[in-house]
Each structure stands twice: as structure tokens, then as C-alpha cells.
Amino acid sequence: MTTAIYPGSFDPAHNGHIDIATRASKVFDQLVVAVYEEPPKGVLFSTAERVEILSESVKGLPNIRVMSFTSLVPRFARQVGADFVVRGLRAGLDFETEFEMALMWRNLDPEIDVVCFMSALEYQFVYASRIKEVAQLGGDVRGLVPPPVAEKLTAKFDRVS
Ligand code: ADP
For a substitution probing ligand 1, which of 19, 20, 96 has the most ligand atoms within 8 Å of its CB? Predict the structure, then answer.
């Protein structure tokens, strides 16, 4: 049985992330979407919120589990019996970042391989940071994020404005 993890901040999950998870779930027997609890860049959504949003968004895909993690990515992969790490690539800057990160993970654990999936054309420009910025300024992000995310963003920014 092939198992992969798909790690990220997912702050919040958007349709680009769901697209990659859906594609990967067709290739691997089991996919663990792994929510990084404390990314250095800081988060708007708590770990519990990020896990809940993702779980709700992939509930139609029975071979996907959503978990949170704090350790190094290759170490977490080993913990859940995964030999592969899934990442998504948008056009432009992602390749350099992902390549550099994949080599660091390989340095930590040479047996774990990174498998990258290309983003769908319509999500090439979708970045979690941009979504938060647009939502904070009152812009409409429906269509780029799963429905509960748009509501939660509105609620969060209404509360602080
Ligand atoms: P981001 O803040 O870039 O959305 P994450 O850490 O949550 O970041 O991303 C997790 C993984 O998902 C990374 O491999 C990232 O390249 C990928 N990803 C992010 N956005 C997209 C997208 N729109 N299409 C495809 N992959 C994406």
C-alpha cells in the first residue's frame, strides 16, 4: 500500500490545495493531509480550524485523512508509514522553493521521495496570503476557497474591523 503525506500551513485551505489533494488521492492508496501547527510565518486560523476546514473539504474522498503535526516533515512521514511527500507547483517561484526543500528533506531521510503535482490552470494564481489580504479588504474570494472558508474569513475580519 502506498501512503503519502501532503504537508502545508493551509492557512486557510483554498481550492488550489483541494485540487492537489484530490489529484494525489487518485495516485496513492492513502493520503494524509498534514497541517503544520506552528509555521514560522504565523497563522490566522488555529490548528483546529485548519484541520476542520480541510476535513470538511475532503470528506467525499475516503482515502484522505487530515492530521496536524509539529515535527520535521520526513519524521512525520515515517510516523504515519508514508514513503512520499506530495507538494503542489504553481507557475513561477514554487519550483525553486520546492526543489530546495525537497533536497533538505532528502538529506534528512534519503528514502522519502517528493512528488509534485501541477496546479490546475485556474488556481495558478491562488495564494493563501493573497486570499487573506483580499478578504481583509472586503473583497469577494468565493470561488477560490471552499464555501466554509469564505464565511470564516468574513467572520474573522468583521470581528477585527
Ligand atoms: P501557501 O501559503 O503557498 O498556499 P502552503 O504551505 O499551505 O502554502 O502550501 C502547501 C503546498 O501546497 C505547497 O506545496 C504549495 O506549493 C502548494 N500550493 C499552494 N497553493 C497552491 C495552488 N494554488 N496550486 C497548487 N499548489 C499549491
Answer: 20
